[in-house]
Prior knowledge:
Order of helices and strands: HEHEHEHHHEEHEHEHEHHEHH
CATH architecture: 3-Layer(aba) Sandwich
Number of strands: 9
Amino acid sequence: xxxxxxxxxxxxxxxxxxxxxxxxxxxxxxxxxxxxxxxxxxxxxxxxxxxxxxxxxxxxxxxxxxxxxxxxxxxxxxxxxxxxxxxxxxxxxxxxxxxxxxxxxxxxxxxxxxxxxxxxxxxxxxxxxxxxxxxxxxxxxxxxxxxxxxxxxxxxxxxxxxxxxxxxxxxxxxxxxxxxxxxxxxxxxxxxxxxxxxxxxxxxxxxxxxxxxxxxxxxxxxxxxxxxxxxxxxxxxxxxxxxxxxxxxxxxxxxxxxxxxxxxxxxxxxxxxxxxxxxxxxxxxxxxxxxxxxxxxxxxxxxxxxxxxxxxxxxxxxxxxxxxxxxxxx
Length: 330
């Protein structure tokens, strides 16, 4: 039996073949192993974009032995869930706040403490310090997971439906914070009522009046659209915050040393690229919020700092005085 092929079909096939020769065939090849990177941020944010870049870069540098599949916006669970997933092997890489990592190794949380850093340069000195490497080593011993580096998250500010210009303005304020003790230190110092709510539920909580306020960097306030349901953005700058990039122990154990070192290099480069993007975005956003109709309040941070710093080595401290002094000396 013979099959008759039309002239039109032959022509169409020839055009496709010529196109592939000219421009290259699409890369359909799947890496031998995909690592799962989970986070709670939106696909529009630099954290996600640089995680995607890391996956593509890892595939290139390992000759397609590994790539990374990124799961954004809490699609594999809330922040507590993905931290637990590292040890279980259900996720391989995560972004997470330092206070969440501090649940496994207390001193790891020190970088997420209100008014711990004087400025960005102080934070960067900590990221690149032997002290951070010591923290990461202690975290590995306690959790079995590998803290690779820090990505700048921005200075955290309070949003509300009234101006917050002094600690007195926060008395009794019901403010949403992440479910980790150090995020409650600043509200407690100022006399507010810290209320833990999952990140994915914050917008609705603000919209419905379940809480009066929340606190996050300007980039997150924009990405999560909190400015739509809060009229005032108060530049308290109470935490110079960052995200840890962590590789789970089971994921590390399945990789040979050479491929793991490539992964580490890629993750550090992604963190540096993302940090630069966050800094650039942060610098322009106060004007952007004003254009949206929000009131951006520049505040004197000294009174907020004064009510918070006495708590640094109080009952919520999970680090030693020596570690605290070493960080302050950087």
